Amino acid sequence: MENRVAIINGDTFAYLMYEPNLHLLGSVFVASFLFFAIQSKMAVKVFNRNAKVSALISFRFMVDTKRIFLETDLTERELSHICKFGLTPLQGRVYVSLVRHGPSQARTLASNMGVNRVDVYRILRELRNRGIVEVQLTEPSKFAATPPKMALELLVSERESQVAELRQIVPWLSAWLDSIANTEVGCDTSNTENTAVSHFKLKYGNQYLETLESMVRNSKQEILKIWSAPGITLHSREGLLEEFSSAASRGVKIRGIIEITKEIMKEIRSVNRYAELRHSDHLSSALRYTISDCREVFVSGTSVPLVGRELVGFWTNNISVVRGFVQDFERLWNGSLPLAEATRETNASPIV
């Protein structure tokens, strides 16, 4: 009969050997040790050997202030990255456990992970079918992880195939959805030029960029535009300035009001080749909007600095609202400075 505790650098182990009549004392010892480990955020491994039942029970706790993780658990960051490749959290844990421990039996995996053996067998079959787990013909059979680089490449190829399949479905599915919309009472999508029907829509993220691109691409007469310095940088980065250039080559007149800064002179020179520009101060804190053919307006609601996932804008084709923005633009236009004069006053490089 003996009680021993061994503390090893980098890890802490409690080895407890006792007789049946000391079970209560042993339980108190283990509970006290684990409580100390939890408070200290230690990694703990406890071995309990009963004199009557020759069994070894091992478990390890990864402790933080909120949760106790089993040995094969990952951090949320690591698991989220793995799941981006198309694996479920449990599939990701099983694969990582195989990478960490090497070829293992299903029952060993289930025991180490604290997961039902039936679920582990199911996950192993799924991963085997996807090529990221291999079966070793031993007795009993063992499962091994496909080398990580190869496994990740297989998962990427799988996702690419799924995307290609989705793209093939788009024409049929969009046509079908349009046919449903056309049969709904009060929904008329047959004439997008009909300004008698007013719409008000909020656009987020990619919708924000796609709406701007569509407005510029479909314009026929004139585009009125207010750019802040961060706004024109965003337009350049997302390729929207190329759409403005294409519109100008079709004969669309473009007038823009912009806030000149030294940091965006390259973009200003580019736009100045096909658009009439004027300068106004403090546009970052003013309304920034795009008007197409006096038929629709898109108002940016994104505060600077601009971040793609935070983009938000308001679009409408309500004729009264659009006319109000046209009047606001003309007022700003008349109060702004021609580009050549503005560059002199702001000490920016002359526009060539």
Structural commentary:
- With 352 residues, the protein is of the alpha+beta class.
- The protein folds into three domains: 2-69; 76-150, Winged helix-like DNA-binding domain superfamily/Winged helix DNA-binding domain (Arc Repressor Mutant, subunit A); 200-345, Endonuclease Chain A (Endonuclease, Chain A).
- The protein is built from twelve helices and 15 strands.
- The chain has helices at 23-40, 76-83, 89-101, 106-113, 117-129, 148-183, 206-218, 229-237, 240-249, 265-272, 319-335, 339-345, and strands at residues 2-8, 11-18, 43-50, 57-63, 68-69, 133-136, 142-145, 200-204, 222-227, 253-258, 276-279, 288-292, 296-300, 312-316, 337-338.
- It has an eight-stranded mixed sheet, with helices on both faces.
- Strand 2, helix 1 (23-40) and strand 3 (43-50) form a beta-alpha-beta unit.
- Helix 3 packs across helix 5 (117-129) and helix 7 (206-218) runs parallel beside helix 9.
- Mean pLDDT is 76; it is low at 1-72 and 183-195.
Keywords:
15 strands; 3 domains; 8-stranded mixed beta sheet; disordered N terminus; alpha+beta; elongated; 352 residues; 12 helices; 5-stranded mixed beta sheet; Arc Repressor Mutant, subunit A; Endonuclease, Chain A
